[in-house]
């Protein structure tokens, strides 16, 4: 069962409570469900990596539980109750170094640090009310930022929980001397400095610099007319990618605050956005039930995957998304070891992903899955032509994401998605 | 090959018509084809003249001559088509059962690009999603629909009549005058009074042109463009007014995931158990992303024959956006927005 979860490089949480793993190199999307009974109470609110090696995922659900999902085993290994659902739903999840603990934040404003397996939090901080997001600084992992509706950005140090390290101030009154409304929806720490970028519900993007005495935003940029729901920082700095409730995703320049370009295709509100750590790719998911992966440089659509439920959050693995190593069924290759081989593969010119298909060999464990896994061939032009991607020929192979569903309740842990009936030939499984 | 039918001896016409025939039956007279360049239309003295093969009727500058040539071209094509048809018929007669199947003409619906969001009826995840969505209370029989119909501010003539006729079609519907009230303030009051739907008909220049359908407890809000509204007096052979019986509902061709959501929205407008005594039926037919609403009264004459009579207003809807949550156009989250530039680019791809 770990064989199906290990090659997945994109993880998404849906409103129906299903954790979805997408393997782009194999063109598969898999469902992982904790219990055989699906329930709206298990709606996934946030995801985060459990450890730096990315072998465990933490899934925060609507009913206040945080589940641990092991990629090696492909199942949920642990469940812990972290708070009362009446307090609000989870808005942020982070782990502290050395597996020391878990930081959770709920919309009602309680930020809790959990250590060990105890039922009581080790530390509690009241961060205000109406929190929309909490994010952790990837460089200084004991610093977190929170913000919400009428709740300014605050940066907290978990070792000194009484008072925030930095509290932002609202913008100046406008030209009629009226107070400007304020609604922080998402934030991110800019690596290499202390600065924080936020996006607001009033279609503004602000950059704050705690190292300066100025508590008001250092830079302000606006985009569109609709609330900006998420943002993400690409690996190459100097820009930020934002998404709004209308499905418009744009990349803004952080030096002058101008729009560099838009990523087309999304037709529903953007709920999850993340740029890859090394490759120039950005993944987006949202209410229109699709996962889209765009190339940051030429802003073209590379992959589009239909996942049947509304998606709340997503998480990318640090290794290259279309790992050629994943395409082969050598399951003995550990996730960590693949990193060395990746350089070789990445240096090679990428002609077309179609070449990966013949290389793929089915292992016996995959036999059950292969029945549905049809249609990876480029001849499945029906869906291939569907793609909105304006890519050249080489990418059409990569565009076909077939969800091959077949619900199995044998292990009550894993479920596979069934593919809608198609007239194509089924690939015979080579056992 | 005699092509000269026009009395005025215009050799150019002869040439062109000859060339046309030459092109269509080029195998027969290869010697007539000249591989000259396109611009040169040399008038040769002989009757049998060949044209450069890339010549087309549109290059003739004279309008009348061009028209004549075009008509001739069409006639030739028609002739060929009739011949083919006759041949096929003859073949079919001869072969009888072994004849090749009839050719199906290509229509836009035939050529529709396969949509990957098409709902598979056996899909468990989608079944669960639909079983627990905002309409589950209605489909489980826990709530009865109660609709509030209103308009944009200060409605005029047609819109008022349209609202009244809609209220007769939808059972348990109430029409209220919109006194310039903000919808966001109206919605909590509706919820308090147990309404399940809020329907706002937008008016422009005395004609209804938009519809906002908001499912009330916390349900999705759909915004439609309304066109082709026909009121009762504009319909032919219309009989009596519709009665108070609950009509049956027919939902046609809502196959994608988005189509399913919209179909469920329409279904939840009407009470679950129709009263067949009333013999009335409301139809929502989706074709090419347009939803056509019709209201009929039917009667079965015998087991196989049924007579229908259209009563009630008829209108066409086109979905413009579907927003999650009650009406909040500025700060609400949209589940689907029509983006014409992206979505209307392909003539064979539809969203519903």
Give a summary of the structure in a few sentences.
The complex is a heterodimer of chains A (431) and B (352). Helix content of chain A is 9%, strand content 36%.
Notes on the protein architecture:
The complex is a heterodimer of chains A (431) and B (352). Chain A has 431 residues and is mainly beta. Helices cover 9% and strands 36% of the residues of chain A. Chain A has a 5-stranded antiparallel β-sheet with strand order 28-1-2-3-29, with no helix packed on it. Chain A has a 4-stranded antiparallel β-sheet with strand order 4-5-6-7, with no helix packed on it. In chain A, strand 26 and strand 27 (301-306) form a beta hairpin. Chain A is globular, with a radius of gyration of 22 Å. Chain A starts with a helix and ends in a 15-residue tail after the last strand. By secondary structure, chain B is an alpha+beta fold. Helix content of chain B is 28%, strand content 23%. Chain B is built from 8 helices and 11 strands. Chain B has helices at residues 11-24, 63-95, 124-131, 136-139, 157-169, 183-192, 257-267, 340-343; strands at residues 147-151, 173-175, 197-204, 207-215, 221-230, 248-252, 280-287, 290-300, 306-310, 314-324, 333-337. In chain B, strands 1, 2, 3, 4, 5, 6, 7, 8, 9, 10 and 11 form an 11-stranded mixed β-sheet that branches. In chain B, strand 4 (207-215) and strand 5 (221-230) form a beta hairpin. In chain B, helix 1 runs parallel beside helix 2. Chain B starts with 10 loop residues before the first helix and ends in a 9-residue tail after the last helix. The interface between A and B is medium-sized, with 38 and 29 residues.
């Amino acid at each position: 069962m770990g064989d199906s979860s290990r090659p997945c490089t994109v993880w998404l949480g849906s409103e129906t409570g299903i954790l979805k793993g997408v393997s782009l190199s194999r063109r598969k999307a898999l469902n992982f469900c904790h219990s055989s009974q699906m329930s709206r109470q298990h709606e996934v609110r946030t995801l985060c990596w459990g450890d730096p090696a990315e072998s465990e995922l933490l899934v925060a659900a609507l009913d206040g539980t945080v589940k641990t999902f092991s990629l090696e085993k492909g199942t949920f290994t642990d469940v812990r109750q972290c708070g009362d659902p009446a307090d609000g739903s989870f808005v942020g999840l982070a782990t502290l170094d050395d597996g020391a603990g878990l930081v959770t934040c709920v919309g009602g404003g309680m930020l809790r640090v959990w250590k060990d397996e105890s039922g009581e939090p080790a530390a509690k901080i009241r961060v205000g009310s109406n929190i929309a997001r909490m994010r952790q600084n990837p460089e200084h992992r004991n610093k977190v930022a929170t913000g919400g509706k009428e709740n300014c950005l605050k940066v907290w140090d978990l070792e000194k929980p009484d008072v925030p390290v930095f509290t932002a101030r609202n913008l100046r009154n406008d030209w009629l001397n009226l107070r400007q409304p304020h609604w922080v929806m998402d934030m991110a720490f800019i690596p290499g400095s202390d600065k924080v970028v936020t996006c607001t519900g009033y279609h503004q993007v602000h950059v704050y610099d705690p190292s300066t005495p100025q508590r008001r935003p250092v830079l302000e940029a606006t985009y569109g007319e609709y609330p900006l729901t998420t943002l993400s920082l690409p690996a190459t700095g100097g820009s930020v990618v934002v998404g709004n409730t209308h499905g418009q995703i744009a990349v803004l320049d952080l030096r002058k605050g101008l729009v560099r370009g838009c990523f087309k295709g999304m037709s529903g509100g953007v709920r999850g956005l993340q740029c890859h750590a090394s490759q120039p790719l950005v993944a987006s998911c949202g209410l229109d039930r699709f996962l889209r992966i765009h190339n940051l440089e030429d802003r073209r659509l590379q992959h589009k995957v239909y996942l049947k439920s509304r998606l709340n959050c997503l998480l990318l693995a640090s290794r290259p998304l279309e790992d050629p190593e994943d395409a082969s069924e050598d399951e003995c290759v550990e996730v960590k070891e693949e990193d060395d081989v990746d350089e070789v593969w990445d240096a090679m010119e990428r002609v077309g992903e179609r070449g990966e298909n013949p290389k793929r060999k089915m292992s016996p464990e995959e036999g059950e899955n292969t029945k549905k896994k049809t249609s990876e061939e480029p001849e499945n032009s029906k869906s291939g032509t569907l793609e909105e991607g304006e890519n050249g020929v080489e990418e059409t192979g990569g565009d076909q994401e077939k969800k091959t569903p077949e619900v199995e309740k044998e292990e009550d842990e894993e479920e596979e998605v069934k593919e809608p009936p198609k007239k194509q030939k089924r690939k015979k499984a080579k056992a | 090959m005699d092509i000269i039918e026009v009395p005025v001896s215009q050799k150019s016409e002869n040439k062109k018509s000859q060339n046309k025939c030459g092109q269509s039956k080029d195998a027969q007279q290869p010697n007539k084809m000249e591989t000259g360049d396109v611009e040169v239309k040399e008038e040769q003295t002989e009757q049998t003249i060949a044209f450069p093969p890339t010549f087309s009727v549109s290059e003739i500058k004279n309008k009348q001559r061009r028209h004549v040539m075009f008509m001739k071209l069409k006639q030739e094509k028609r002739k060929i088509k009739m011949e083919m048809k006759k041949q096929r018929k003859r073949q079919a007669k001869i072969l009888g059962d072994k004849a090749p199947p009839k050719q199906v003409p290509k229509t836009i619906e035939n050529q529709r690009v396969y949509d990957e969001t098409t709902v598979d009826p056996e899909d468990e995840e989608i079944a669960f999603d639909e079983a627990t969505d905002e309409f589950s209370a209605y489909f489980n029989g826990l709530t009865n629909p109660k609709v509030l119909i209103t308009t944009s501010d200060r409605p005029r003539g047609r819109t008022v009549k349209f609202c009244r006729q809609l209220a007769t079609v939808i059972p348990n519907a109430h029409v209220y005058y919109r006194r310039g009230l903000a919808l966001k303030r109206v919605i909590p009051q509706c919820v308090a009074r147990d309404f399940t739907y809020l329907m706002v008909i937008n008016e422009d220049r005395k004609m209804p042109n938009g519809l906002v359908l908001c499912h009330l407890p916390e349900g999705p809000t759909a915004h439609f463009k309304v066109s082709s509204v026909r009121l009762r007096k504009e319909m032919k052979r219309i009989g009596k007014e519709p009665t108070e019986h609950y009509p049956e509902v027919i939902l046609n061709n809502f196959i994608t995931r988005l189509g399913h959501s919209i179909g469920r929205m329409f279904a939840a407008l009407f009470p679950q158990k129709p009263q067949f005594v009333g013999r009335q039926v409301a139809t929502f037919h989706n074709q090419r992303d347009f939803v056509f609403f019709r209201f009929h009264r039917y009667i079965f004459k015998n087991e196989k024959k049924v007579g229908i009579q259209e009563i009630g207003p008829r209108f066409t809807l086109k979905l413009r956006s579907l927003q999650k949550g009650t009406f909040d156009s500025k700060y609400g989250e949209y589940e689907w927005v029509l983006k014409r530039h992206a979505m209307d680019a392909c003539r064979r791809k539809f969203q519903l």
